[in-house]
């Protein structure tokens, strides 16, 4: 008679996991800070118009559409840690140029758009590699522990990154504040480079045809599996609308509500504690209520609270508190959705094709974000910030409606077995 399965050893006892955790955490900190600082450079330092801010965000997101599939094929053939190091070295160099150009009086919107594109391209490779690295580094029975730890640190970065970015913008101007991201990416490189465990990755035959075949394998698995296909479509609906919302939101806070850079950072940072709470809930709720019920309910609540933002007025403490409460709740429920989706994706996808599936879902789910950002900038100029923010917040409801009608809503307390993605 066999007893219960032994509890897997803690991932924190693994030095290489700790180095990965430190590297990904500091990199996420730099990413979150840059997401606040780059638009504020355009708005505050360069007096950009609504269409220009929309263009800046669209260009930064365009590499998701252009490069995700190639990144997935590349990561499945290389050490994920090598890809992460090279991506962060690149982001360090590119962002370090911004304050130099500013001090020389040479920084303008076209150059900032170029920086945004390069940072976006390198971020695509880092993100795909980082989502693949854990599966290669720890045992399968440690995935839940590792995912929870990395998601918790990502939540912490969502707290600290915007707050640090917004505060530095107020203290030293936005172009100089970007050095916080430069420092974070540098620390990430120093930590990830120290991971010693080799990744025994198969090296397929060289050649462009092989690359396209690998891309096709990732696409085929996502299209053929009902749950993965639904994840991609629901993500696409959400990310398109959310890109439009955030483009308008980053203009709405300083220009309509007249919030300072520090206040903007504080408001955005409120998502972090919410995301941390969401990470804790996501480890318990699906096992109690079922993955489908949790996904749909959390998506409805996350998107619903954003409808409160267009009704707010002024820059009083009450308004700032209300914005923080909205962002906190959005952080809670959106994080439940994110962690639950990641858990479903990891369980369904065979390890050898994880990179390509992650890249395919990024391509499908986030490929429309540049168009969403452009739409947000256009609506802001045509309809005004408050009206356009309300319309795009309503559009967020498309994602939970689709989830409720898809196979995701029927997922129970037990996850599906891995799909056959390599046949």
Let me know the average pLDDT: 81
Number of strands: 0
CATH superfamily label: MFS general substrate transporter like domains
What is the third-level CATH name, the topology? Growth Hormone, Chain: A
Secondary structure class reads mainly alpha
Which stretches of 5+ consecutive residues score pLDDT under 50? 1-5
Helix fraction by DSSP (H/I, runs of at least 4): over 70%
CATH architecture, by name, is Up-down Bundle
Rounded to the nearest angstrom, the distance between the terminal CA atoms is 36 Å
Count structural domains. 1
Strand content: under 5%
Q: What is the rounded Rg?
A: 21 Å
CATH class: Mainly Alpha
- Total of DSSP H or I helical runs spanning 4+ residues: 18
Order of helices and strands: HHHHHHHHHHHHHHHHHH
Described by the principal axes of the CA atoms, the overall outline is: globular
